[in-house]
Design goal:
Length: 117
C-alpha cells in the first residue's frame, strides 16, 4: 500500500467521526465499522490487533461488528460509485494515480513549453 493510498483510506475510515461524535446518541457501530471496512478489509489479524489496542482505552470499540473476512494477502474490493453513500462519494475524489501526477499548466496565463515569454 502506498502512502497516498493509506492516506485516502484513513480519510475515508474517519470521515464520519467529527459529525458522529457531536451527536447526542453515539452510534458506536458506525464509528468502528468505517474503520474496520476502510482500513482493515481483508486483514483479520490487523483488525483484531487494532481492536485489542483500542479496547484498552475505549472498552466498547468494535463490539457487535461482524468478523473481518479474508486475510491480509487479499485486496479488498473497491466500493462502486453507485453503491456509495453521498458522504462516501464526496470522499472518493480523484483516482489515487492522479494525485501524484505533476500539475500541467497549459495556455494563458502560463506560457507554452519552450516559449521565451
Amino acid at each position: 500500500m502506498t502512502v497516498v493510498e493509506f492516506g485516502a483510506r484513513v480519510a475515508s475510515a474517519f470521515f464520519l467521526w467529527p459529525k458522529e461524535l457531536l451527536e447526542k446518541d453515539l452510534n458506536r457501530e458506525a464509528l468502528a465499522s468505517t474503520v474496520q471496512h476502510d482500513l482493515f478489509g481483508g486483514n483479520r489479524d490487523g483488525w483484531s490487533a487494532y481492536v485489542a489496542y483500542m479496547r484498552k482505552k475505549v472498552s466498547w470499540f468494535g463490539t457487535g461488528l461482524p468478523e473481518v473476512q479474508g486475510d491480509a494477502s487479499e485486496e479488498p474490493a473497491p466500493a462502486e460509485a453507485e453503491d456509495a453513500s453521498p458522504e462516501e462519494a464526496s470522499v472518493a475524489g480523484a483516482p489515487l494515480a492522479d494525485w501524484d501526477a505533476p500539475d500541467e499548466k497549459k495556455g494563458w496565463p502560463w506560457p507554452q513549453p519552450g516559449s521565451t515569454s
